Amino acid sequence: MKLQRKNRLRATALGALAVSGALVLTACGSDDNSNADANGGGKSSTAASDITCDGAEGQLLASGSSAQKNAMDLWVKNYMAACSGVEVNYNSSSSGEGIVAFNQGTVGFAGSDSALKPEEVEESKKICKTGQGINLPMVGGPVAIGFHLEGVDSLVLDAPTLAKIFDTKITKWNDKAIADLNKGVELPDKPIQPFHRSEDSGTTQNLGKYLSAAAPDAWKYEAEKKWPAPGGQAASGSSGVASQVKAVDGSIGYFELSYAASQDITTVDIETGSGTPVKATSENASKAIAAAKVVGTGKDLALELDYATKAEGAYPIVLVTYEVVCDTGNKADTLGTVKSFLTYASSEDGQKVLTDAGYAPIPAEINAKVRETVAGLS
């Protein structure tokens, strides 16, 4: 069982690498740049049919969410291979740092796992001049709960139990609450070592939204980007939390699914009350994201997710990463590249690579609105 699960995770990771490599090699394999101008602003290569480089030039800086790093890496490699002379540099830091950078005017767009707050929108007007910051949902996926417990290769947890673990109210792996959810599993009398993000994180906020919605009696904290509960250990970025879980026996943490796949970390199945515990997969996350509603106004496409869903096969701990841009008032020297790059990211080809990397594409109806909004950025 353990071998099968790990093989599935390894296959997902290898699939993502294979896609990345194939995209880069295919795009680089064409030396026909006759349609490109000196700034790389010509037509795309035949290998990347959904990439149009018109208007793109120079360097584009972006930063933010580490949850979307693996998706962004794929997009950037494919895009830069198609658009010669254009450089896209995405700094994977955190949602909080990305929004700060955006509102300071140092990046063309930011990645955030949670929508802008009203005060952040107000602050963005200083940078956007004639407009304001808006949220464009671009990447979806499950927030995996990864664990490392020698001798245990599968684990089921529900929201109340998970809340008490991360709130350090449940401190041993053989606690009755965990044992009741895992009949027949030999759980060791070993301390639980929970890991959380050290910096402001949209992934933290999404986990908090899930715990607040699905276990309100056990999780009393506001869903904020800063980790709210006492105890536990902190690590930087999704990669840092995943690395700690990978290394420490008895540990548990949260991060985007691709980090579990790439580091071969076993993930928790979530008991939602639907009758069958739900696995953290792109397909199961898509079932939850598909029910999302657009609650943003105007060009803003912020979504409302149902974290307490009990729909069959719907994985409830999900996040949607937004690319935060100005609706109007974007900087003239980066506007063309921002529009070109985000047009590719939201295209059919751009969304297609997400599943192979452990993410969930944005539902088609919502994504159509994203593409329309990107086309109208000014």
pLDDT averaged over residues: 88
At the fourth level of CATH, the homologous superfamily of the largest domain is Periplasmic binding protein-like II
Shape: elongated
- Can you tell me the CATH topology of the largest domain? D-Maltodextrin-Binding Protein, domain 2
Number of helical segments with 4 or more residues: 13
| Count of distinct strands | 13
For the termini, the CA-CA separation is 53 Å
How would you spell out the order of helices and strands?
HEHEHEHEEHHEHEHEHEEHEEEHHH
Residue windows where pLDDT falls under 50 for at least 5 positions: 1-47
- When the domains are counted, the total is 2
Keywords: Phosphate transport, Signal, Transport
GO molecular function: phosphate ion binding
Pfam families: PBP_like_2
GO cellular component, one term: ATP-binding cassette (ABC) transporter complex
Topology:
Blueprint: H1 2-28, E1 58-64, H2 69-82, E2 86-92, H3 95-103, E3 109-112, H4 118-128, E4 133-148, E5 156-158, H5 159-166, H6 176-181, E6 193-197, H7 202-214, E7 233-235, H8 237-247, E8 251-256, H9 257-262, E9 266-267, E10 269-271, H10 282-289, E11 293-294, E12 303-304, E13 318-326, H11 332-345, H12 348-356, H13 364-375
Parallel strand pairs: 1-2, 1-3, 5-10, 6-7, 6-8
Antiparallel strand pairs: 3-13, 4-8, 4-9, 4-13, 11-12
Helix pairs in contact: 1-2
Organism: Streptomyces nitrosporeus
Domain PBP: 56-348
Binding site for phosphate: 65-67, 95, 113, 201-203
